[in-house]
């Protein structure tokens, strides 16, 4: 169980690193005339993602580690982190945890964005299922997924509307 606590803490620290990058990129975006959209869902997103980490720790304390499931899900967690940071790297200053679009910039169509419109959300969904299941926390995986579905629907609509109005295609 201790190594799982370390894993969840590392994922939490990764989230802090994302917020540091996001704040830096937000400052740049606003300096370039960036416009923020969809602020209403952001607090819920923060609470949901924080709840994922807390739920993993609480539930895993009462669940066994099943090696076949745990190691497979650990690989999915690592792959989702790789995909997330690939997205962050490819978007560069345009990446943010908030919906901030700088008018006149071109839509990014390289890296994972060649194949998917929102590849970062593939990483979010995969991690939201896999991280709890590393230590058999299936209730956390289920609750996060069920709450994340409507959140992602709202988020993607907000992003699409902002991108449609502001970016050069």
Automatic annotation (TrEMBL):
It is found in: Membrane. Keywords: Membrane, Transmembrane, Transmembrane helix. GO terms for molecular function: protein C-terminal S-isoprenylcysteine carboxyl O-methyltransferase activity. It is a multi-pass membrane protein. One of its GO terms (cellular component) is membrane. Transmembrane segments: none annotated. The lineage of its organism: Bacteria, Bacillati, Actinomycetota, Actinomycetes, Propionibacteriales. The keyword Lipid biosynthesis does not apply. The keyword Membrane applies. This is Isoprenylcysteine carboxyl methyltransferase.
